[in-house]
Amino acid sequence: MHSILARVREEALPIARQGKTADYIPALSSADPAALGLALFDAQGAMHSCGEAERRFSIQSISKVLALAYVMSELGEAAVFSRVGKEPSGDPFNSIIRLETSAKRRPFNPFINAGAIVVSSLMPGADASERNEGFIAFVRRLAHNPGLAMDEAVFLSERESAARNRSIAWFLKELKLIEGEVDDCLDGYFMQCALSMNAVELSRIGAALAMDGIDPSTGQRALSARASRVIKSLMVTCGMYDGSGEFAVDVGIPAKSGVGGGILAAVRDRYGIGVYGPALDERGNSIAGIEALKRLSGALDLRVL
Amino acid sequence: MHSILARVREEALPIARQGKTADYIPALSSADPAALGLALFDAQGAMHSCGEAERRFSIQSISKVLALAYVMSELGEAAVFSRVGKEPSGDPFNSIIRLETSAKRRPFNPFINAGAIVVSSLMPGADASERNEGFIAFVRRLAHNPGLAMDEAVFLSERESAARNRSIAWFLKELKLIEGEVDDCLDGYFMQCALSMNAVELSRIGAALAMDGIDPSTGQRALSARASRVIKSLMVTCGMYDGSGEFAVDVGIPAKSGVGGGILAAVRDRYGIGVYGPALDERGNSIAGIEALKRLSGALDLRVL
Amino acid sequence: MHSILARVREEALPIARQGKTADYIPALSSADPAALGLALFDAQGAMHSCGEAERRFSIQSISKVLALAYVMSELGEAAVFSRVGKEPSGDPFNSIIRLETSAKRRPFNPFINAGAIVVSSLMPGADASERNEGFIAFVRRLAHNPGLAMDEAVFLSERESAARNRSIAWFLKELKLIEGEVDDCLDGYFMQCALSMNAVELSRIGAALAMDGIDPSTGQRALSARASRVIKSLMVTCGMYDGSGEFAVDVGIPAKSGVGGGILAAVRDRYGIGVYGPALDERGNSIAGIEALKRLSGALDLRVL
Amino acid sequence: MHSILARVREEALPIARQGKTADYIPALSSADPAALGLALFDAQGAMHSCGEAERRFSIQSISKVLALAYVMSELGEAAVFSRVGKEPSGDPFNSIIRLETSAKRRPFNPFINAGAIVVSSLMPGADASERNEGFIAFVRRLAHNPGLAMDEAVFLSERESAARNRSIAWFLKELKLIEGEVDDCLDGYFMQCALSMNAVELSRIGAALAMDGIDPSTGQRALSARASRVIKSLMVTCGMYDGSGEFAVDVGIPAKSGVGGGILAAVRDRYGIGVYGPALDERGNSIAGIEALKRLSGALDLRVL
Questions:
Q1: CA dist list (Å): C32 to C15, C29, C153, C279, C283
Q2: Which of A134, C220, C300, D252 has the fewest CB atoms lying closer than 10 Å?
Q3: DSSP letter (8 states) at residue C270
Q4: Beta-carbon separation of A85 and B245 below 8 A
């Protein structure tokens, strides 16, 4: 397995030169565009990795998966999906127009910003810090890293450059889709985006999703089976920004990306996968990360579709 | 297997009373809303069916899958996807607005009407009849029914009540996405929608998709592996109209529905499935058909996500 | 007055070099971009003109004013405005999206293509030729030119390059906003757009509008007062394509332009104005024509706002 | 004149029963729906009024006219119109979608909320209070009331129920169309909306607009001629929310309404008009106020179109 990963990494790496790191906050733009880390955690609990698989990065939109898992665990499915849909939207992740124009006037799914802000606002806790504490504790358990934490500098940058997200959040407030103070709600959302993780940790979480909620390290249930299925389904239809459809065609497994360069993927009954490659394509997905997953999907026959 | 199918059918049938048949053309509205046919064709080439699995109906939008398969077989992937995208749109199947507003000004995918009309226009042949002849020959081979044919009455009704599709087609003409005469192009599209099939035949085609293009009846390649994968991926993200995301969550397999009440599904390496249940939910999907697939997915652990 | 017109023409002419003639049909693209004709018909029935004021051109969208006047005269206000609104839309003249997205699902006003096609379909007559006969007779009376006629070549070109208008018309058919055959309805619309007139004739019609429907040549009522007012109001809010607001600011009088280079304007109780200048700005308005009207408005204090 | 006003008021009043007061803040909902005040200030400096013409109310969106006048006076035309268009939009006053979808990505005009927030942010001053001080001083001079002030309770209510406006403002911030702090910018905007005035004062300001900027009370220039013209033109195309086109048809003069029940109108060279009638139609315009203006336009032949 290690040689497969190493070969895939070597073949995928050159395409990183065609991408570039996210530039809207310093912490992301300064990442090494030539990094590429792969981690694969299997159903028997064995970890395989190569490259920069332990380098920490900001998970950004991958947190949308974790936040949904946490809120579904705490409050159940209906609490979320009475306020957010389950359908792909065809719009950019930061689009606001459907909140004004769609018949139902709610976010199309939890993986666009509007939906994720609603999910984040549902976390139990009196304020952003308290909500985030519970959330981080949940992620630490899933990732088997009790030291996992938010990157404070990323959080502060995020908060500084958030005009569009503030616009979205105030629109959600108008629609009565979020409770409490808008600024506090957004702080919680920025904190979750600023979580610092690595590909190895993502692969562990992916494995729990792959096993319908059973953590292969422990054999214990980490997530409900239903939450795992909902999340993997949404990852397939909406996980890779505007490239979700193409990714489904080319790779064929549930995955969620973030502009920090990470990708979290889950192959039913077989593997959790974590990828880190901060050079992005024009849709905001790790360009070498997608290439690596394409090759890995071929090499290991991962495609579920 | 037969007892599973029979039980699933029995459990799913009552919900048909909550749906109603399509009412825009007589041939569809007069269908028996209490019909429910299930057919499952397995990797070993065995057919299992129950209920109205041999009742013929108009495949309507399921033809979008077959047309895409045919055109990809004849002309390759690029010929289609230079004109049509691979992304879900979040809009109704008959929406026109993205043709005017989207940056790329092309249909988002081949399973909304705009995309399917483009695909249909690409079929080789001098006119609608000739194009349709080649198409029907292709479907006959896949379905193992040399007598398979278009329902003339449905075709004529379709053509009579097609103002929205004509509007879409003329917009596509303006964008130079279709060649030839618009009326002729639409005739071809209506012919393909009016194909009369049954659940048994759909299950055979689903099985070829499930086997990445190998027909289990013959062990021969019926479709390219790539076409099979592209199609199954699009079925997951865009196959069930505005309910694609929810279907992925609840059932978790690639499927494509039509307002005639049919559903075609494919479970990788295992089964092709055909369903017929003409009572529709408000999104245009067979209401008892979805219920049956939900229960079948649970009973046979079909979910791939 | 003649010296004012001559000076205005001279000052406005150089800007024509910054525009270009419409290029979607040959008859328009071959016009002389340096032509500029001005005609002003006053309340006492005196005609003043200079430049290419008698050169004939295709009136194109100016026909939307004449068609509305004709249909309001024949059928009354309600017949039109139960199907078309009176509000500016902010969209391009050939936009289709509001037909799908607006709450009322009807064209915003009679001066965008969708609205004008509806108005045209309301003209009395069994087919396009018959409808157009009545319409041309009406325009001949207003223009005092019994020989006024359609330019057959323009009509045929128009009909050839009309994919977008066909798309709009079929959408209107779907919304049940037009009766009869779509192709026949469009033929009538293209005929009216292909009417060949000159600036002198436009100024006569403008004068009748300016006098609330009384033709100053004869002292007789040519249009109802109400129709005149409705039309002038719509000219102010929607007459100059996407430049209507700016034209109201810069010139301040009701006007309607066409991509043939014509402009028809009406100054209450004072003047009808006709302009011809086929070099267009990027919005499709006569670039020298607008410049001339700006200067004329200053020189004669025409602004009504 | 007084008897004309009295008769018009009497005839228009009954229709107030078909409207209702704005209900989103207490100060507006508690207004007397049967009130109707009319004031007409003529070119000779004579004031005519009847009914509740001196009752004070919150001017709300009428402040968009005054803010534009103030900023054009202070900074010139280009400072505003480099950031805001001059075109009607066809969208609701509080729409956000064009900020995301339009090619120019700026508000269509200064009389929708998005445009007015930009204009407000341009007022000179270090913070909202300071900006508002200059603005109120400007309005006091125009209205000849040195005691004119903001209604503190309205301002506070406004600020409390402003989620949609905050969403718009943050989107404008993202587009770099407003400087400074968003909350402070909005405070200034809410202050201007909360200005308390009466119909008599509005008629004085309308008269200055009617006289192209000359205040008929003093014979002095109160506004630049250009500002007056720009404002009146925008009032015609965009002054009456989604009913601007219909108002132009039915009344035919530049006017601007507010949900407090006020209307400000200007008839070139003749009259400024102020109206107060807090019962609103479904578009947010004073229902009896529009009726009164329709009748007044007929009685005094006010229509300029």
A1: 14, 8, 17, 8, 19
A2: C220
A3: T
A4: yes
